[in-house]
Amino acid sequence: MTSDMILPFYQALTEDVNALSAQVPALATDTLQDIRRKALERFSTIGLPTLKTEAWRYTNIQRYLKEFPYELLTTAAAVAEDVVNSTAIPELDCYRVVLVNGHLQADQSTLPEGKGITIGAMSANTTATGFVTYFNEQQHLAAESMAQLNTALFADGLYIELAANTVVDKPIHVVNVYSCTAHAFIQPRHLWVLNRNAAATIIETSIHPETATIAFANSVLETVVMENAELWHYNIQQGAESFREVHTTAAQQHKDSRYHHFNFTLPNTPFTRNNLSVALKGSHTETNLNGLYIASKHQHVDNHTFMDHIMPDCNSNELYKGVLLDSSNGVFTGKILVHQEAQKTNAFQQNNNLLLGTKADINSQPQLEIYADDVKCSHGFTAGQFSEESMFYLRSRGIGEDAAKALMVNAFSHDITDAVKVPALQHFLQEQIAEIMNN
Amino acid sequence: MINSNEIIDDIANKEYEFGFSTDIEMDMAPPGLNEDIIRFISAKKNEPEWLLEWRLKGFAAFKKMEFPKWQHFEMPELDLQALSYYAAPKKKVQLNSLDEVDPELLATFAKLGIPLNEQKALTGVAVDAVFDSVSVATTFKGKLKEMGVIFCSFGEAVQEHPDLVKKYLGSVVPHTDNIFAALNAAVFSDGSFVYIPKGVRCPMELSTYFRINAQNTGQFERTLIIADDNSYVSYLEGCTAPMRDENQLHAAVVELVAMEHAEIKYSTVQNWYPGDKDGKGGIYNFVTKRGICKGTASKISWTQVETGSAITWKYPSVILQGDHSEGEFYSVAVVRNKQIADTGTKIHHIGKGTKSRIISKGISAGRGDNSYRGLVSVGPRADNARNFTQCDSLLIGNQCGSHTFPYIESRNKTAMIEHEATTSKIGEDQIFYLNQRGIDSEKTVALIVNGYVKEVLNQLPMEFAVEAQKLLSITLEGSVG
User: Fold this and answer.
1) Locate the SUF system FeS cluster assembly SufBD N-terminal domain: which residues (chain B) (predicted)?
2) Which residues in chain A are closer than 8 Å to B355, comparing Cβ atoms?
């Protein structure tokens, strides 16, 4: 059910779906139109999330959607080279993929080349095997109305497919530029497929250069990690005051694969919601989900994760840490579902929070749902302050209060930053954290 | 004229014909839930006008509500109109000696170590002169009265202490709280009322008395316990003996109020009929239990051992309103066959320096489904609040389920909250170790389970702790091997 207040917005969206087919004919094939129509139907059945939607009980998305008169934006505008360059991670030797509102800008990108590497716009790859097999295949997307909306409305995105045994030699830096001249609602859609024995490291950052117009991105990324493949995915949400984001990642892993996901949410963006789900479709997999969120002012950061243990003998580790400053709100939901067949599962989850702002708050729902008996599963949660002893220790050695705090936050986030395997990126993140704490 | 005379004669004869038992028949309300029934119940109990109005308000709230959908089990179909909401206590079939009792039941009693006289009381065997429950009760009552403790049935309290009842009834669990609480408010039959005056430490476990006397309290019981300043009371409801009951739905309400420096310890041992192997029959135990720590440095502690019922669905909660007040929740929930437990607690930290501790131990066997669902919320005023939560689950057999759904909300930066949950099965190495020392698998499991739940059982009054331990072993019999 769509609530009354959001109705005009919703009606506009329905019209947009019909208009879309004319704009990007490649993404309006019969099959895709059918998928889009079904997604829209599904969206209108579940409706926009409300506070009564269990998965959204601590996040009022309608509040953010109603904040400005958003219009659906499906096109890209040229973005100055220096804007793109400003996102570069110092001393990182990498390939660069520039996407403006989800549309690939080939002339500003340095794409990896070589046998077995397919990288390009979704609209240019609708006949690729990976696209045909895996597009919109993730069941977890069906339950999420924002993802359904994306399926119905997406205009383009990044398609990556690595053939079997293909290893990309350098990290791929995906620069998501969201650029608009009026308040815009943007729907990028990506699909990354790593076939058997393939490996890649992908770093995502985003930038919204305008300050007067608000960009609301509702992006969906599907990743497929096939047998014995390995994907390192870093998503760095640096944020801007004029940016809002719902980011849905649905991953699936097959036999013997490794998937490492890092999510860094840094201050400024008033509203961030990250949906992350991993479906384990093969045995003997390894999954590491790491998250660090540092929120300030009235920022609202919601991390919603779902580990779906379908097959036996899989390991998953999840660690999310949060630092909540000023009047920020943090939300964490971590669900581990172990199916009856998934014996010998090891699944661990930890969520630690530092509440530093007087009006900051944290709502957490770590969940275990277990139907197999030969498993080891646990979750842990903490919320609190620096220990007085540690603060006293630092202060007694002549370190000022602010510097001591910055040091402690650095130490607190170390578990996450230490796991970053790209040295330049690790250094960059540590600098960012230090800078936030010094301001 | 002749006709009407005949009718009059008929009626006269009928009354004569049925004699004494007619009275009981008349005390039975027809099935159905409506305002008339509520008025009927209220009139039968000779209740004051305000109580009737409160019942009607509860009914009005009930009519507006729907059954919840968020629980982790399929809601059984309940036809609330098919129930009869008032029945005078039924006469139990009196047996002459224990020889007539079901031998299986006696074997269970023997394993639990229940004294012979209590066995008789529980099975409805006529009690001999040596063990006169009435006189025991009178002795207890006299002692309590001396100290100013009020402990009586709810109906009695309404008649004799209307001011206290009026002041506190619905103050912790309002009639609008949830659909079952609303239903209970409308039709509650009876229950217990306890008031501990200022500075009094209740000299005995109120359970002892309760256990002998308060049988058949009915399916919509209501308990209200008030501990005034600096007082202490320990209360135990239920018993370890398997209880069979004709009422399938139990929607009780328990309200606890602790004033300054008062402490209430509430223990529950629940072993209602769980239904057969396929989960047919069995009690639905949908209870609303909540306590409020109103005064400074007050304390409420819930301890529960839940082994029975087809569905156990309850969240004994504590509102920590007074500064430096303390809430505790200790729980053992065991499910086997097709039993379901969705239980846990809610702790609301409102006052400064409030503390809470939650220890939940779930055991799932067979095709049972066990969920811990809990809320810890810390309000902006609750400076230096402290919470520790641990919920562990033990899985026995590969068809059971065990789930944890905690909700943690912190709005205060000085609060410290810790939550920990683990799920695992009994290690094969542990079983092997004990087997190798000549302990058979069944006893091994009992031993490990008892170690696992010790932290909770230690909170029970001593004699019940021993029984509860035995109860767990019996419940899990045949689950392994």
Assistant:
1) 48-202
2) none
Domain ranges of chain B: 132-426
Domain containing residue A396 = 388-439
Q: Which residues in chain B are contacts of A384 at CB distance < 8 A?
A: 415-417
- Are A377 and B410 inside 8 Å of each other by CB? no
- The shortest C-alpha distance from B426 to chain A (Å) reads 9
CA distance A398 to chain B (A): 24
A363/B407 touch (CB, cutoff 8 Å), yes or no? yes
pLDDT tens, position by position, B444-454: 888 888 888 88
- Torsion region of A52: left, alpha or beta (phi above 0 gives left; psi -120 to 50 gives alpha): alpha
CB-nearest to A380 from B393, B410, B420 is B420
**Is residue A233, in this structure, part of any structural domain at all?**
no
Task: Kindly report the pTM of this predicted structure.
Answer: 0.87
Summarize pLDDT for B18-72 with one digit per residue, the tens: 223 333 334 566 778 888 888 888 888 888 999 999 999 999 999 898 888 888 8
- Residue A376: both structure tokens together: 């080891």
pLDDT (tens digit, 9 = 90+) per residue, A359-408? Answer: 999 999 999 999 988 899 999 999 998 888 999 999 999 999 889 988 99
- The answer to whether residue A402 sits within a structural domain is yes
Residue pairs spanning A and B at CB distance below 8 A: 113
| Residue-by-residue DSSP string for A375-391 | -EEEEEEEEE---HHHH
In this complex, the residue of A357, A370, A372 whose CB is nearest that of residue B413 is A357
Pairing assessment for the beta strands B340-343 and B311-314 based on DSSP bridges:
parallel
Q: Do A368 and B423 touch (CB under 8 A)?
A: yes
Provide the domain count of chain A.
1
A384 touching B, CB under 8 A?
A: yes
Compare CB distances from B414 to A363, A381, A385 and report the shortest one's residue: A385
Cβ contact A379–B420 (<8 Å): yes
Look at residue A423 and tell me if it is in a domain. Answer: yes
Question: Would you say residue A273 lies in a domain?
Answer: no
A63 contact B CB<8A: no
